[in-house]
Amino acid sequence: MKKILFIALASFSLLISNGCKKKKSETPADPCANTVCLNGGTCVNGSCSCPTGYSGTDCGTQRTPVKVTISAIKVTKFPGLDGTSTWDPITNTNPDLYAVVKQGTNTLITTGSVNNISAGSVTILPGVSAYDVMDLLTQLNIELFDQDTPPIDTDDSMGNVNFSIYNATNHFPTTLVVDNGSLTFELTLSYTY
């Protein structure tokens, strides 16, 4: 009888001790804990969701766009003098600016002109409708001119800059600054993939 009582008490205390134990709460592991997403990518359930223009498991690959669109051209620096005289010596005024963008021998954009612009002025050149550049490998050339009145005088080249519209590591700037030291342009860009 003592054995039966002992077995009953042991079973009862075992039941009580197992029944009173709290189960450890199992928190699911964060699937993004060890996931690194580059270039502004975000982790969703352990995988990277990449922003436009990037791909790969970690968003580390910059995609090549099918075209780059130039929607505005701004001149931020140009030579104030044509050698030692003003750009318009007949009228002794500042230059009347316009620009031409070429790719090889093909003229892509000819802007409108703005009159009597003094050196140091930041000037948005008019007449630039969105132009799609499809050949992203061939360099472009942008040349600034002082517009003059023929036959009295011909347009003067104020300088030019060769540049690439796209490279595989530029991270898609919306403003591309191109310069040659004495001449600086800012181009407003957008990308299509």
List the helices and strands and how they pair.
Layout lengths: L1 H19 L21 E3 L2 E3 L4 E2 L5 E2 L4 E11 L19 E7 L2 E5 L12 E3 L5 E3 L6 E7 L9 E8 L11 E5 L4 E9 L1
Antiparallel strand pairs: 1-2, 3-4, 5-8, 5-9, 5-13, 6-7, 6-10, 10-11, 12-13
Summed up, what is this model?
Helix content is 10%, strand content 35%.
Give an overview of the whole structure.
There is one protein chain. With 193 residues, this protein is mainly β. It folds into 2 domains: 31-63, Laminin; 67-192, C2 domain (Immunoglobulin-like, Sandwich). The chain is 10% helix and 35% strand. The protein is built from 1 helix and 13 strands; from the N terminus they run H-E-E-E-E-E-E-E-E-E-E-E-E-E. The protein has one helix at residues 2-20; strands at 42-44, 47-49, 54-55, 61-62, 67-77, 97-103, 106-110, 123-125, 131-133, 140-146, 156-163, 175-179, 184-192. The strands form 4 sheets. Strands 5, 8, 9, 12 and 13 form a 5-stranded antiparallel β-sheet that branches. The chain has a 4-stranded antiparallel β-sheet with strand order 7-6-10-11, with no helix packed on it. A two-stranded antiparallel ribbon has the order 1-2. Strand 1 (42-44) and strand 2 form a beta hairpin. The longest helix is centred in the first third of the chain and has 19 residues, at 2-20. The radius of gyration is 34 Å and the shape is elongated.
Series of H and E elements: HEEEEEEEEEEEEE
- Radius of gyration, in Å, reads 34 Å
According to CATH, what is the class of the largest domain? Answer: Mainly Beta
CATH topology of the largest domain: Immunoglobulin-like
